[in-house]
Specification:
A five-stranded parallel sheet has the order 2-1-3-4-5, with helices on both faces. Helices cover 50% and strands 13% of the residues. The protein has 214 residues and is an alpha/beta fold. It contains ten helices and five strands.
Length: 214
């Protein structure tokens, strides 16, 4: 890694964001952009054709969730480091993306120097955890009652929770995630029980209050 540039693939649906990131990355002697994609499916297709060390991945994509791209990468590209770069709050998404297999989480308001530090850490096989997320991890270990309620959800439960909160039907979620309707319904019941909720409307209300949906 010391003699070869770190190859980064950017996945974000905003062209201006991709262009800005590319300009910043190419200004670093040890970093280069190996590819870019505007959608989740485009990212998955590109990964079959290029070699990358770090996937810089947005969570909010037009065709599928960044969480679903993350899940695909963890199954098919075990050695690829995934750094989530998102406008969603670190406090609300950080724990769940780490649980889902991400190597780190960086907010879109992060300073350039901190972003580069995160990229280099992930490229070396490490995990990047910012101060806010580090506090949450410590709180989780201590069983802090102030930890986000959704942090108790598993990776798959959180993925389905976000879709339900956005108003997607169980049948549509089942089709998109290649699960049976019965399985998704079981997950829904489990989520409601864990979070002490009664309906999808409760999920939506919670997600809006906690900036989990846009």
């Amino acid at each position: 890694m010391s003699t070869q540039r770190i190859r980064i693939m950017i996945v974000d649906d905003h062209q201006v964001v991709r262009a800005g990131l590319k300009a910043l990355i190419e200004g670093q002697q040890d970093l280069t952009v190996a590819g870019e994609a505007a959608t989740g499916r485009e990212a998955i297709e590109q990964l079959r054709q290029i070699e990358a060390d770090v996937l810089l991945l947005d969570l909010s994509l037009p065709d599928m969730s960044g969480l679903e791209v993350l899940r695909h990468v963890r199954v098919h590209y075990e050695s690829l480091g995934v750094l989530i770069l998102s406008g969603f709050p670190e406090a609300q998404y950080g724990l769940n993306v780490l649980r889902g297999g991400a190597s780190g989480f960086v907010g879109k308001g992060t300073d350039d120097s901190e972003l580069f530090r995160a990229v280099r850490t992930v490229a070396r096989g490490g995990r990047y955890v910012g101060p806010e997320l580090a506090d949450l991890l410590v709180a989780g270990v201590r069983g802090d009652p102030n930890a986000p309620q959704h942090s108790i959800l598993s990776e798959r439960e959180f993925q389905i929770f976000c879709r339900l909160a956005k108003g997607e039907a169980v049948s549509d979620i089942a089709k998109q995630l290649y699960l049976s309707v019965k399985t998704v319904s079981t997950y829904r019941s489990r989520i409601l029980e864990k979070m002490s909720m009664k309906s999808n409307a409760d999920m939506t209300s919670y997600a809006i209050r906690n900036d989990l949906v846009q």
